[in-house]
Amino acid sequence: MFDGNRVDTIIARAFADNRTDLMEHETYELLEAAGLHTSRRIAMVHHPADVTEKMVSSFPGEKIVLKVAAPLIQHKTDVGGVRIVDRQYDAVRNAVANMLATIPDRFEAWVRTHDLTLPEPYSTYSRQELLDAVARDIRGIMITDFTAADETGFGYQLLVGLRDTREFGPVITAGIGGIDTELFAASMKTGLAAVTVSVLESTPDQFIKKLASTVCYQKISGQTRNGTRVVTDETLLACFDALFALGRYLGPDGDSSYRLKECEINPFVFARKQMIPLDGLAKFEKRPAAAAVKPLHKLVHLLHPASMAVIGVSGKSMNMGRIILRNVMGQGFDSRRMYVIKPDTEEIDGIICVPSIGALPETVDLLVLAVDAAQAPGIIEEAASSGKVQTVIIIPGGLGEKSGTEAIVASMNRAISESRLRPDGGPLFVGGNCLGIISRPASYDTLFVPEQKLPKNYDKTPDPVAFLSQSGARMITVISQQTTITPLFSISTGNQMDVGISDFLAHMADHERDVRVFAVYVEGFRDLGGLKAIQAVRRITEQGRAVVFYKAGRTAAGRSATAGHTASVAGNYEVCATLMEDAGAIVCDTFTEFNELTRMALALADKDIGGMRLAAISNAGYETVGIADNIEGRWPLTMAGYTPETIRRIQSVLEETRLNTLVDVRNPMDLTPMGNDFAHDGVIRAQLDDPNVDCYLAATIPLTPAQQTLPSGIFGKEDIQHPDSYPNRLIRIFKETRKPMIVCIDSGSLYDPMVRMLENAGLIVFRCADLAVRLFAKYIHHRLV
Predict the structure, then answer these.
(1) pLDDT digits (tens, 9 = 90+) for 578-612
(2) Angle 43-285-411 from CA coordinates, rounded to 5°
(3) Confidence at residue 570, expressed as pLDDT on a 0 to 100 scale
(4) Which residues contact 305 (CB under 8 A, 6 or more apart)?
(5) Which residues pair with 173 in a beta bridge?
(6) Does the global pTM surpass 0.90?
(7) Which residues of the chain have pLDDT under 70?
(8) Is 715 helix (H, G, I), strand (E, B) or coil?
(9) What crossing angle do the helices spanning 644-656 and 677-689 adopt, rounded to 10°?
(10) HEC string for 167-200
(11) N or C, which terminus of the chain has less Cβ within 10 Å?
(12) For the purposes of burial, counting CB atoms within 10 Å of the CB of 697, is it exposed (0-12), middle (13-18) or buried (19 or more)?
């Protein structure tokens, strides 16, 4: 039974000792308070005289374990802080005396030979001062029973750890334990060595199901050859129940006045079907003050403004502010409710000018701040105090990224924090280093990129896509590349000084139901922003919509580049990717994946996803082999088996087109270069109509004269615009089928017109089959779960 009062008492006792961590015996006490029976018998002694014969005889077995309890000593074994002795009074007493006498010297020597830097004030001590300090630091010797595990060897030790993450709050990890935990985690495929879930967004039952994929679970549950189950799922579940309860109680919204930073048992071993901890630690802190509540309901003013002002517009040159003004007006924004804040000027480009924010004739929904970084703090203060601004886009870059801007950033953060004290919570701020926002529903574009440099298809009906990017450069790169997609919203968040990616996701999950696909590029979340993001992603995906997600800063070098680019602190990539996938996001490994899966999610948004059974067609043997070779992976597809009716229909098409002497009915189908457009049409329709087929790949090498794959006037009578050309047949089939279907045209630029024709009709076209199959599998898997 979980006992919150006892948990707080244990932590408070350590806090009173000027410690923010628990020693091993205190960690076991904490686990007991959380409701986990550790099955350990423990006695603490502070002097050899504290050891009694009665104490020693109360322990079971022939051996006893002694461990030093000292906050400063993390690696006990290296300094002689762990002993295994016979369960005899003299042996235990002598071992305690020897440990207390020798550990300070051994610790000092270990620090010196390993060239370690100790925390203050220990790093400034002389040798004798350090010896004396270590002796004082020793709180005693823990005496506990020696546990002989039922099974030993690889996989029979379990690591279980809780830790608080800045972005996602408490997470729990379990997997292969012991001294080589990190080695196995680094060398095994994802999900084999260890698994992680959010304590706040998952359950113990879900966690144990996820743990079942690991090597460790397969060992301890007896699934290996001649293996023996050493623990029941019920016992594991009881452990996880206690740790989940502990994580929630000491989590961001818990009832305790303390916040858990880490609690790790490494390892648990298994004896008599019980989980026995062999080592443990716990760290904590005082619960920080709650952050000010942001008036996020004002995001509607940002995404759908009826009035707007721009500050920083030049009347003489085409500066950043002037480009923004022209882009906004070019979208058709209401000029009667558009203002330029510029003293001593009547109008610019037909837009009325006012001398200051306070002089605005109305409260504007959006203020675009396009000035130098040094001017930003004062304008933010004015915007916050004026009561005339609902939301602000802060364009200036270099804030927090360039050395020397720290004072400017601090001043801006202070102004934003003070604005939260206003009755209405003050304005919302997006940026700095925000490249801008495009809202097609609100007819505005605040990007400071000229239309000539970045055509934005103002004349095209927007697609139900929202692109949310912390990097403005990444956003405009994708817009430039993805010419067949015109997003409903394109949002650059920059440094996330106030409003972040997670705030937009949460708002749009509930209020922007026309968006079917969210393409999200993130370098780092604000505190607990990751938790908010996965909650929003889960709501979005449960509504049948898609989130395509890319997280930058996954390596040490990447994290360094991220911090230098948008002043974000990148969190642990593996945790982020895992939790996003659990929430339903399609997590991308590369920029190419991000681009292609965004296109796929849009093209297939209305298709029915029924399973992973693939049918495919090509006119080249190498391509059919390549398709089949790539169905096995992290998200495996299977090649569908045909019904007798499908085989009959395909055979009929082959006979009618005289291909029956060349090819057999297979999956993938190889029609050879002799297969014409009629043959492809007939076989594709037969395959798609088969109830055993869930998804489809239509591929062709378009160089064959048997197909119409070129524009008119290049070769003979070929004309891709002909109603019965190969692309027009594919377009009709795609529009008629309810099954997900993709296309592969593996060829050179000569066939780009056909590719554009297919893509403009809504199909997704790949230029190589192996990538097509892998990404198709990934997309379908995430739509199914």
Answers:
(1) 999 999 999 999 999 999 999 999 999 999 999 99
(2) 165
(3) 31
(4) 364, 365, 366, 390, 391, 439, 442, 444
(5) 161, 196
(6) yes
(7) 398-404, 555-571
(8) coil
(9) 170
(10) CCEEEEEEEECCCCHHHHHHHCCCCCCEEEEECC
(11) N
(12) buried
